[in-house]
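Hallway conversation turned thread

IA: we were arguing at lunch whether anyone had actually written out Cytochrome P450 end to end. Turns out nobody had. So, for the record, here is the sequence (411 residues) and right after it the structure tokens. Reply here if something looks off.
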Amino acid sequence: MTQSAEAAPEAGSPLPQFPMRRTCPFSEPREYAALRESEPVSRAALKVNGKPTWLVTRHEDVRRVLGDGRVSSNLKLPGYPHQFHIPEEMLAQVRLMLLNMDPPEHTAQRRMLIPEFTARRVRELRPRIQQIVDEHIDAMLAAGGPVDLVTALALPVPSLVICELLGVPYEDHARFEEWSAALMNHDLSPAEYGAAVQALDAYLDKLVTLKESEPGDDLISRFLEKNAAERVADHVDVVTMARLMLVGGHETTANMIALGVLALLRHPSQLAELRADPALLPNAVEELLRVFSISDSGTARVALEDVEVGGVTIRAGEGILALNNAADHDEAVFPDAGTLDIHRKEARGHLAFGYGIHQCIGANLARVELETVYGTLLRRIPGLRLAADPESLRFKDDAMVYGVYELPVTW
């Protein structure tokens, strides 16, 4: 027997609000464990507008939702669980980006981008990534501690990597990083959010226009060349794709670099193991990705027809949040899930990069960047330690992508 939306919750009972705050940076919000146990597919009210949505919290169910062709990523559909307040008139003007497209449009654009992010292509980038990391650690060592690891290393490394990959001038990074941070902030007004989108798109529009007549050796230029032979996108689509790649390519990895370093510094025995045996790094990266699952509410969907998930019927037109952070702390898949364990055999089964057709296209690149940064830091600065009281650190509870604002370190 399945439960329907009409049957839960009881009439008049208040819905819990979403998003739910992490009380510890190394843990999921405490409500998730209770939901997985007693009501793994449950109703919640979005804080931004009070509208109801479904929360899916078990690993098996999250995978099922993200792999189901009967749910859509299209943020223009009624019922889509928005994390920002977007007025109807503004929503009508939004151009869908890859993250929010459904097949066949999504399939066509992704197919053109996949060659840029294969394991082989990323291996070719590894020497340059290593050079970028070494240059920034050189600068840290020359300056002497304490330094803020976020501004000294975590943010500039992935920013420079994605700029070179896309063909975006890195000298403009301060501007696009400011716009990117705004796009991640839950608390911005619609006007502020819209202004950030417009400013970033205006910048990228000029860049794409230039590459249409003067192509270079970069992702945007190669996409334009393929698109000229097999048109799957117009000019605005390319600008929107570039925005997604630029923001996603540095914002998520930057936050994972800082959080991962913090986690290792707070687990000195595991840090010592990694320093003694760098071969453990790839699995450690997977475990850190699992523990943090920093883009928890990025897997928003809306049902195109009635679907059954975990014994619950979700009606057509209802919103769904498939919570990968909840899934990645599911004890049925990850025993003792609240404990960081760099030896965890099942770590690679995490859903931090999503699942299904919308799984993060840059996952291979992110993994190599994280391995390179963690490994180089451990090798070159063996005395690295926190230079602040851990309780004083400020975490990004107000953002779509979780992270830490500053991470003071010394050695």
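OS: looked through it. The chain has one domain: 3-410.
IA: good, adding that to the notes. The radius of gyration is 21 Å.
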